[in-house]
Write a structure and sequence with these properties.
It is a single chain. The chain is mostly helical. It has a single domain, classed as Metal-sensitive repressor, helix protomer (Methane Monooxygenase Hydroxylase, Chain G, domain 1, Up-down Bundle), CATH 1.20.58. Helix content is 80%, strand content 0%. Helix 2 runs antiparallel to helix 4.
Length: 95
C-alpha cells in the first residue's frame, strides 16, 4: 500500500504543477480556450487520481478487510459498514 500512496503522491504533485501552469497562463493573459483546455487536463488528471485511489481502497480496505493489508480505520468496521462506506464514496465520485 505504501507504493500505491507514493504513486498517488507523485501524480498529485504533477497535478499541482499543472495547476500552477494554469495560473501562469491566466497571469500572462493567455487565450481563454487555451486556459480552458489546460483546466480540462487538470480535471481529467484529478479524475484518474481519484479512480486510482478508489481501486486501491477496494483492494486493500474492502477485499482485504480484516487482513494485514487493510487500513486500521477499515479494520475497526464490520464488512457491512465497509461496503456501505464504499457505496457512498462511489456515489459521490460519479456526481
Amino acid at each position: 500500500m505504501t507504493d500505491e500512496r507514493g504513486s498517488l503522491d507523485r501524480r498529485l504533485a504533477r497535478i499541482e504543477g499543472q495547476v500552477r501552469g494554469v495560473r501562469r497562463l491566466l497571469a500572462e493573459g493567455a487565450y481563454c480556450c487555451d486556459v480552458l483546455n489546460q483546466m480540462n487536463a487538470v480535471s481529467a488528471a484529478l479524475n484518474q487520481a481519484k479512480a486510482s485511489l478508489a481501486v486501491s481502497h477496494i483492494r486493500n480496505c474492502v477485499d482485504g478487510h480484516e487482513t494485514e493489508s487493510a487500513h486500521p480505520s477499515a479494520r475497526e468496521m464490520s464488512k457491512e459498514e465497509v461496503l456501505d462506506e464504499l457505496s457512498e464514496v462511489l456515489q459521490r465520485l460519479v456526481r
